[in-house]
Amino acid sequence: MANLPGMDSHVAKDQRSDAAIAYALLRFTFGVNIMMRGIVRIALGLPAFQAYMLTQFKDVPVMPPAFLTSFASVLPFVETLIGLLIIVGFQTRSALIAGSLMITALTFGTMLRSDFTIAWLQLEYALMFFLLLALRSWNVISIDGMMRGEPKRSGVFAG
């Protein structure tokens, strides 16, 4: 793998490095996006989201309504949990893998509906999951980083 600036081991472990700060900010923002998708769906009521899903798939004969209702009942809680884990950087690898699989499932359904515009948007989410997973060595400003015993420096924004 080609070395990107900031990818050498001593810089990647320094909480003051631009790479660590950039990763933390991207991880936090992306986690908020994913978590809020779930929270909004829960707040608006699961029956409303279930009805929305059933409406979206009414012309897709291979998608049974019972499956859609079950999927729509679970998805907001999965999004909320994955987003929260990404925000705080706890079990980041597992959360990113689970999120990637979640977006794969959503993309599959979107393609069954032939909604190519939304499918492109979902590819952007897949790319974000990829980037955060591939650059996880920069994940030092996180609970995972604290648990690994990443060296603390005097002030994250010093330097």
Structure, described:
The protein is an all-alpha fold and 159 residues long. The chain has one domain (13-147). Helices cover 70% and strands 0% of the residues. It is built from seven helices and no strands. The protein has helices at residues 9-12, 18-44, 46-56, 65-88, 92-112, 116-134, 143-148. The radius of gyration is 18 Å and the shape is elongated. The two termini are 28 Å apart.
Structure, briefly:
The protein has 159 residues and is mainly alpha-helical.
Which features would summarize this protein structure in a list?
159 residues; mainly alpha; elongated; 0% strand
Low-confidence stretches: none
Structural class: mainly alpha
How big a fraction of the residues is strand?
A: under 5%
Rg value = 18 Å
Major beta sheet summary: none
Which sequence of SSEs, written as H and E, runs from N to C?
A: HHHHHHH
Please estimate the helix content.
over 70%
Shape: elongated
Count of runs of 4 or more consecutive helical residues: 7
Q: How many β-strand stretches?
A: 0
Ends apart, CA distance between termini: 28 Å
Topology:
Blueprint: H1 9-12, H2 18-44, H3 46-56, H4 65-88, H5 92-112, H6 116-134, H7 143-148
Helix pairs in contact: 2-4, 3-4, 4-5, 5-6
